[in-house]
User: Fold these one by one.
Assistant:
Number 1:
Amino acid sequence: MDVTTNRSGSDYRRQAVTAELKSYLGPQEYAAPTTLAQAAEFLADGDAIVLAGGTDLMLQTESGQIPYRKRLVNIRRISEMEGIAKYGDEIRIGALTTMTDILGDELLGVTTPVICQAADHFASSQIRNIATIGGNICNASPAGDMLPALLVLDAEVELISFDGGSLNRRRVPLNGFFTGPGATIKKPAELLSVVCIGIPEQRATARFIKSGPRPALEISIVSAAMSAFRDGHKLFHVRLAFGSVGAVPLRATATEMLLEGETLTARLIEQAVEILMAEINPIDDVRATAWYRRHLASVYLRRLLIDDD
Ligand SMILES: Cc1cc2nc3c(=O)[nH]c(=O)nc-3n(C[C@H](O)[C@H](O)[C@H](O)COP(=O)(O)OP(=O)(O)OC[C@H]3O[C@@H](n4cnc5c(N)ncnc54)[C@H](O)[C@@H]3O)c2cc1C
């Protein structure tokens, strides 16, 4: 008997079995809100799980990797979370925007083609048709393809929640959003509503590279993105980000600092590789060894800097 709670061992066992059974049986409630405010209300008690395209969530819940919560909130009917539009000097991408939407979007193709490149390397057409940008971010996989591309664009995300009877919004930079594999600073009661990107300067260029043994349907072994503008042999406003080289998608800020405003020489490139190797912390897993990931990251950095295919 636990004297502090007055509960016996069998009480605890019953509670554990009930929790396991509930998770096994799936959610007890289903909600399909049509507005952001309704969705935030359904999430307010923190005992709900969001369903967007379901391409990550269904596999994770059905395999038992993550447990269901009490309520499943299907957000796909919320039209406020759809669409790509320019507002002043920024582009706002609704969290429900799919990879297919991104690939076909003229505004993104002209202003931020690096996002379209990432969408083009993403899974298969079938998955691209339902996988959302919000899901890719909230799933927080170190291998998420959109993430390095968004990081080099200094993207921010808007999180909404229901607080004291009203809708609360906070905007946070994507750099710092990820705290570990599958983990972010987003609270369980928060919904990611929109991704915001400042329109890059016209002279800025950006590029995304991803590796995998097959060209399609492949989770990256390493992915890399860079944004900068070149003035002669010098790089300015350098942003570098890598996927699958550590616990979170990584902005390589020390490497960026070394390169900023400097003349690109063979020696500088090798120094940059050296610094990058100290910034990344890849692991061995079924897809590749840590050694191979380091090798690929160094090759990709050289390619991005030389701007070579
Ligand atoms: C066959 C296959 C191939 C794949 N290939 C790739 C690939 O090449 N590259 C890649 O990056 N990924 C790949 N994935 C993973 C997956 O498709 C992406 O991560 C996708 O973007 C997830 O989006 P979704 O809308 O399906 O999210 P869901 O599965 O619905 O949700 C994912 C997680 O995010 C949460 N969530 C979703 N939207 C929100 C929101 N707006 N606010 C708060 N929480 C939210 C959910 O609760 C869940 O925890 C692949 C998956 C499969 C099955």
Number 2:
Amino acid sequence: MIFGSIRRGTRVSVDNERCEIFGFCEMEAPSTFKIGPDGKLRIRRMVDRDGLDQAISAARLCPKQAIRVKGEGAYDDE
Ligand code: SF4
């Protein structure tokens, strides 16, 4: 199974208008972000707890501020 415990409401997205494929996100959160052989960024939209922490870190590092993590505070079901 790919995901351990998916938290409802926690989603990762990237603004393609801003992203310039620098790849910092892939280095910081390789389970969530991957630059494919075609040079396009692929993302895993739903993340588990470990993936979430990495995705938040990637969002902070992204030089274009292109990453959004929604529901990052919703660790427990509401
Ligand atoms: S770090 Fe930001 S700009 Fe770079 S590939 Fe990831 S989302 Fe795109």
Number 3:
Amino acid sequence: METLLYAQLADTLIAQIRGGVYKVGDRLPSVRSLSKREQVSIATVNSAYAILEERGWVEARPKSGYFVQRAQSVQIGKPRTGEVTSKPRAVSTKELALEVQREASITRSRNFSCAIPDLQLSIAAVIQKTLTRLSRQGTALGQGYDSTEGLFELRQQVARRGIDGGVHVSPDAIITTLGAQNAISLALRAVTKPGDIIAVESPCYFGLLQMIEAMGLKAIEIPADAETGMSVDALKLAVQQWPIKAILCISTFSNPLGCTIPDNHKQAIVNLAVRHDLCIIEDDIYGELQFDGPRPKTIKAFDPDGRVLWCSSVSKTMDPQLRVGWIAPGRYYDEVLRQKYTNYLAAPSLPQAVTAEVMSKGLYDRHLRQARLAYKQRSEQMLDLAERYFPQETLASRPKGGLVTWFEMPRRLDMTELYHQCRDLDIRIAPGELFSVSGLYRNYFRLNYANEWTPAREQAVQSIGDTLKSMLVSR
Ligand SMILES: Cc1ncc(COP(=O)(O)O)c(C=O)c1O
């Protein structure tokens, strides 16, 4: 609990500095008075001040106390919404996407390219232990195939957790999958045929775009706002103009924007789907990674008649290696189940059993509390570092959950070139061009902030900033 307290206190102090309660040069309350005022230990206050000092907010002066060093001198604005694309397009395969994915696990200390959670958090040991124990007990192995529906205990846990997001389905309405990507792939196979048009948010996680291409589908890009996600007006226009088959969107803390579609927009998207008889494939993979407050509602929560296929996994909350995901496909249940059966019969039960057990014992919730706080602080620190080291022209999204931030640079800069220059420095970023089917985001890039900030990672962000500045000078 103490660890949470100092972090919370540091957040409060930063908010006060940002809000102008303390200005640059002001002396902050002494350790003793703050400890008294906030009713926390001296050690807690010292740790909070250490965070502020490490992040460059305050300066410690011997025998005098802590003084505000900066109050966010460069205010990073939010990136602009993309343009409406005029027509559906085939997605072209990008070697770059494979390259970025392939390099996900290398040079982790300087790798910001993939949307991977911090795999050093304590849940890793819990997974390891549970896996070892269950495999020793002979759970799953030596018992033949799992059912195609998937392990009941996991479906039960998913049904219980879904309630927080407004999803009210029974375990029998859920099918387990090999991660969220697989859930979405089964959903697309169930509701489309080659040549069909899918409405996707723009920018959109490139794994989904690649999948659309692999299935011979077309994507129409609907611009997304950095705070409120897919534009309902643009979607309305697109739906009137094109024979769209399905809407695919990452409803909460999207990748790459980190944005969340507000409830009234979620309702409007569902209304539109009803009016035009479309289905909605909802990728809710980041839905439980909110920084504050309750978990946002899903689109599925507004589903009146089973047209929303709700997909998620534990890849962002536990470990992508588990390959455990699920889908609640509503009225498309039979077709999705058939797709799973004809594609791979059944999923391995051991990872499902591990996930179910970790969830049922409350260890998952405990971990989520720790992860949310860590990611909140790390995202703020990412923005602090960007403010300190990136060019003045930088625009950045301010996620309220999830794992990634989206940066915009002046149009004349090519972030695929930044990717290559960073690669030479052994730093990895995700270039913006991957997130569109029509080359919209060449001056954007995405960074993952989930891992703990170390001097090496901070140095890497500074190097990205230096590279950007030298690119600006030479253009
Ligand atoms: C939005 C989104 N959906 C799906 C996936 C893939 O998820 P999984 O590993 O569960 O297949 C990712 C991974 O980056 C993602 O960001």
Number 4:
Amino acid sequence: MQRFWPRYYEKFVCTADQCPRTCCQEWKIPVDEATEERWRKLAPPQAVKPQRKALSAYIIEKEETRVIGLKKDHRCPFLTEKKLCALVSAYGDEVLSETCTDFPREVHVFSDHEEETLMPCCPAVIDIWKKEEPGFPNIPGEEENLLFLLRKEILDLLAEEKISPEEALLAAFYILLDLKGRKKPIPADVSDCFSEKTKKELLKAIRKVSLPTEDTALECNEILQDLAVNYQNEGLYGDFLDSVLELSAAISDGEWDEVLEEKWNVFLQEWKKWDGLIRKFLMNEIFSDLVAADSDLESLILRMEWIALEYAGIRQSAFLNWSLKGEGTLAYETLRDAIVVLTRMTGYEEEDIREYLENSFECPLWEWGYFALVLSRGAE
Ligand code: SF4
């Protein structure tokens, strides 16, 4: 089976003890069967506390998955004080579970090829995008396949620097809804929708839409709180979420005023300065998450909505964090941390996304106006 990956994929190196937000804490670390079997015969290294008989004794069952039982501070028991893995130091990389070996790489298997990407929930991945173009591959036959052609066209649209990342997503979502309304769309319809003439008209119309800043801010606050509530209840990402959610709740309770509106407008100018990085992040999301092996047009629309929710959560949390820190310019570290934490919180499987959208919205398939409200840059 042929395998494809973006050019940046080969540049990844784990920064280990230098990592600003290690993956060895605050989430589920699954252990596959073969690893569990091997761990039954291995004693924990001295540095691991508390000491147990075998490595397998640190595995627990959580939500029907075998995972490493985290300590009370939500850190992996094998993570040392120097932020290194005690297992790797004692036994080498071969001792690791599949998840620990692969992260942040992911493979998507299709009927005729496989695709590999890196997940943005690792800070080292964002660091690569800060310096490099991702270089997404062309997949043979994508022009003849409705869904792959759609993905290609959306990637091309996002790459256009004259169009803001938000405008590109708004145009793409409009086209997806348009195609969904047709009887049996074919690849030629996709090419029509993305022709220069149609895109120009669509973008002209999109640029005329102006939505009240306050409505977007309040909606994005709700989105952020919904996405974060379970994590906050479990005491996860407290260093990031606690103060951000406090300000978010105050805004929802009516504390949106002229001062905050002014701050929001300043923030948007700062946000714009990171358009290049945000564009690469969104392109990676589209490349890796928009199309799955069993996708149809409806699932693409739901995926786009999920990307919009993720994006809204990132932008809102970056805004709140930036406000709280009183930063003049939006620091790279503030933006990176927002992307890393929010993508860790939104890394849902297909069926979980559908369930979330069904539970959170009257109809899981949004109208374009709601998509625009979520992504709006307001007073721009
Ligand atoms: S998050 Fe990325 S850079 Fe950090 S420890 Fe994990 S793999 Fe390494």
